[in-house]
Write a structure and sequence with these properties.
Blueprint lengths: L1 H18 L2 H4 L3 E12 L3 E10 L8 E2 L11 E2 L1 H10 L3 E7 L12 E11 L10 H4 L2
Antiparallel strand pairs: 1-2, 1-6, 3-4, 5-6
This protein binds zinc ion.
The site of zinc ion (ZN) has 8 residues, from loops.
Length: about 140
């Protein structure tokens, strides 16, 4: 059991290192806020959680499944965040089901609703300023 826990921590560390830092992956992003609601079998609200990322954090967006006994489960928001940043979008909403499997757990044993907000650094290229605004 303890061994397993250590192996998991090592794995997490490796995954985080592989993901790189937020400021390296997304230099224009000044912060990301992920608000989540965890549900048991998509109905019963288990908990609410808000996670903040700043540029010096790892760009690792896989949230663990809270269900006991769930192996390799979780909710990976990396794709959603990648797409959002690519589009320059500021927020996204959606839901995910845990893909973890275990003999005692049925599929869809847990799910989340998420809301992602992304802040971009205010620095703009001077060419973007409109003349009407500067004439005041
Ligand atoms: Zn799970």
């Amino acid at each position: 059991m303890r061994q397993n826990h250590f192996a998991k921590l090592e794995m997490l560390k490796k995954n985080k290192l592989a993901a790189g830092l937020l400021q390296e992956r997304f230099p224009k992003v000044s912060g990301i806020v992920i608000q989540m609601r965890y549900y048991h079998r998509s109905r019963q609200l288990l908990m609410e959680r808000t996670v903040n990322f700043c540029p010096s954090d790892y760009a690792y967006f896989k949230m663990g499944c809270m269900t006991r006994g769930c192996e390799n489960g979780g909710f990976d928001l990396a794709v959603v965040i990648n797409d959002l940043v690519k589009k320059g979008g500021k927020s996204a909403k959606g839901g995910l089901c845990c893909e973890g499997t275990s003999p005692e757990l049925e599929a869809g044993h847990a799910s989340i609703d998420y809301k992602i907000s992304i802040n971009y650094s205010a620095r703009r290229s001077p060419g973007l300023k409109s003349p009407q605004l500067t004439s005041f």
